[in-house]
Specification:
32% of the residues lie in helices and 21% in strands. The chain has 12 helices and 15 strands.
């Protein structure tokens, strides 16, 4: 049986120059045994329109556009969307920042093991080098990654399906690649690291998409939470992910359009009591609703009455900062509502959180 390959490339608002350079390096290598699927997870609408035009110029590149603007980044969901319907023998997780060696598929496709996964070292380029136009072999790298960098991996597709794919708990950045490797090993499968030759070179890019300056959802502790969650999975030798949730769910554009017409509205002050009650309320809803929520700092947080009560040692409302409210709400979405269509924004200058979410009870 010959090897066939699906390459998944998750993306959000990556530079079109970077993206085109990557696709150009892949395109000439594609055959009827290979396919590339870009999953664009919530890039700006104008960007998605440009991306559609670009990918239309590549006959063997497919594009899935997700209307997830205003949602936390979820690389795991991007991958699982394609994995659930994958019919090739192998599935590869790529990166839109990579420039591919012109002989990668020619030399490696037939060598992919039927019963083991392989991941590849990556050559890291500087900002200055990344700005140049060169052939793959002429690009200089600052260093090559070691065994700890697991992002560019090729899996036997059925093995990956057997452990329920990538863990969709992981949002933001970090740990999902290492976690899937670990769970495959816990299931008894082998994983090999390939570093005999650099087949991929990483183009430098800024990380402004992780910034607090953006109104997009951002949780400053999420990468550390992801790492701690991974360590617990490792300690308890977890194998299957997504036990209590459907996974790999494609986005339904019609459901996202319904976010424009909420039928339930709530306003909350940033207090621990109100935010916790809200999260419990949404988990216990017995019907589908399109809920709009606005959260602002409590006007009583620094009132004279509150300060007097604190000095007197009396019980007071547990006022929290708008940043703390943001963290609690995002954690609730990840835990209980990550498959629901939603749009989340946090205006830090005005200190207002705005969430519209389609709470579906059929999930």
């Amino acid at each position: 049986m010959r090897n066939t390959l699906t390459v998944i490339i998750p993306n959000r608002n990556r530079s079109m120059v970077t993206l085109k350079r990557s696709l150009d390096s892949i395109n000439s290598q594609l055959t009827d045994a290979t396919q590339v699927v870009i999953v664009d997870y919530g890039s700006d609408l104008s960007y998605q329109s440009e991306l559609q035009k670009l990918t239309d110029s590549f006959s063997r590149v497919d594009l899935i556009l997700c209307p997830t603007q205003g949602q936390l980044w979820s690389k795991s969901r991007c991958i699982n969307m394609v994995l659930t319907s994958c019919t090739t023998t192998h599935l590869m997780v790529g990166d839109m920042d990579m420039i591919w060696h012109p002989e990668f598929l020619k030399t490696q496709l037939s060598t992919f093991p039927a019963a083991a996964s392989v991941y590849y070292t990556v050559g890291i380029m500087t900002q200055e080098e990344s700005a140049l136009e060169k052939t793959f072999l002429d690009y200089d790298i600052k260093f090559a990654t070691g065994e700890e960098a697991t992002g560019i991996s090729v899996f036997p597709a059925e093995q990956l399906k057997s452990i329920n794919g990538f863990d969709e708990f992981f949002h933001g950045w970090g740990s999902e690649d290492t976690d899937v490797h670990m769970r495959l090993q816990h299931a008894g499968y082998n994983i090999h690291f390939y570093n005999k030759e650099v087949y991929f070179k990483h183009q430098w890019h800024a990380k402004s998409y992780r910034s607090k300056q953006s109104p997009l959802p951002f949780h400053p502790l999420l990468e550390r939470i992801n790492h701690r969650y991974f360590l617990w999975n490792q300690y308890f030798k977890k194998i299957k992910a997504n036990h209590n949730d459907q996974w790999g769910i494609l986005c339904n554009p019609e459901e996202y359009r319904q976010l424009e017409s909420p039928n339930m509205r709530m306003k909350l002050d940033a207090t621990r009591e109100e935010i916790k009650a809200f999260t419990y309320f949404t988990e216990a809803l017995d019907r589908s609703v399109i809920l709009e929520l606005k959260v602002s700092p409590s006007p009583n947080a620094n009132s004279l009455k509150t300060r007097i009560k604190k000095v007197a040692g009396k019980k007071t409302t547990h006022f929290i900062s708008i940043e703390q409210a943001n963290e609690m709400l995002l954690e609730s979405i990840i835990k209980s509502h990550r498959n629901c269509p939603y749009h989340y924004s946090f205006d830090r200058e005005k200190a207002v959180i705005h969430l519209v979410i389609y709470l579906k009870r059929n999930l």
